[in-house]
């Protein structure tokens, strides 16, 4: 019977029991894909991760990520939360740099001091900018008026997990957004496949730069508390379309307020002639540790 160590952490947390919950299972090479998916569904979290590597001296770890629907090649808060578990429980010297081997490839993670806090950062892969969507279509999918959509393009962006980025005009519009499931599946998911749907606006609850909500009904997550992958796509979008009239940004994003899981994400992005560099960071707090039975 499996007795794998399991840790629960909160990622992009502002304090205890905030941010996005993650379950991390260690020594997981003995578990089948079906067992991993079943465990993920058991947690009722948006994702769980499984560290298949044993202790290593090269600083690289093989990790698989699941949401309640399927295995996925990349996700943001699972990457940072898993790096926290590796650093705290699998290493003796708590290294400030690690590499996670994920479905999208190698993702570097590092730690930076922020006063008394430690911020976990990751570098995401190069973004791809794919199709654009008509404002009236997306407004109908979100139950909004077309006038709630800002003038910037609505674009499908991916850094490993595709996300439709939707600029809205106000916090009120963000608050009113709600996926209309018939239109959501027939007009978005069925034609292009499973994607996250991110809405954002420059009005915020706190002293932050942007407010964000992310909907992922197709992955079994009606609303996600904090989404590092999608916010990485947002960071790329902000420089690609000159949202802040700058080719280098460093912004703080708030997410999760609508579902009582307030979260803060730090985004950095810079654009050059050849590429866009994307970094996403946040705090990770431990909640509990135990074992599978």
Q: What does it look like?
A:
- This protein has helices at 33-43, 76-90, 135-142, 171-176, 181-192, 228-240, and strands at 5-11, 20-25, 48-51, 60-66, 71-72, 97-102, 105-114, 117-124, 128-133, 154-158, 163-167, 196-201, 210-216, 221-224, 248-255, 263-271, 276-282, 284-291.
- It folds into 2 domains: 5-121 and 283-291, Diaminopimelate Epimerase, Chain A, domain 1 (Roll), CATH 3.10.310; 128-282, Diaminopimelate Epimerase, Chain A, domain 1, CATH 3.10.310.
- It starts with a strand and ends with a strand.
- The mean pLDDT is 94.
- The chain has an 18-stranded mixed beta sheet that branches.
- Strand 15 and strand 16 (263-271) form a beta hairpin.
- Helix 3 (135-142) packs across helix 5.
- The chain has 293 residues and is α+β, with helices and mostly antiparallel strands.
- It is built from 6 helices and 18 strands.
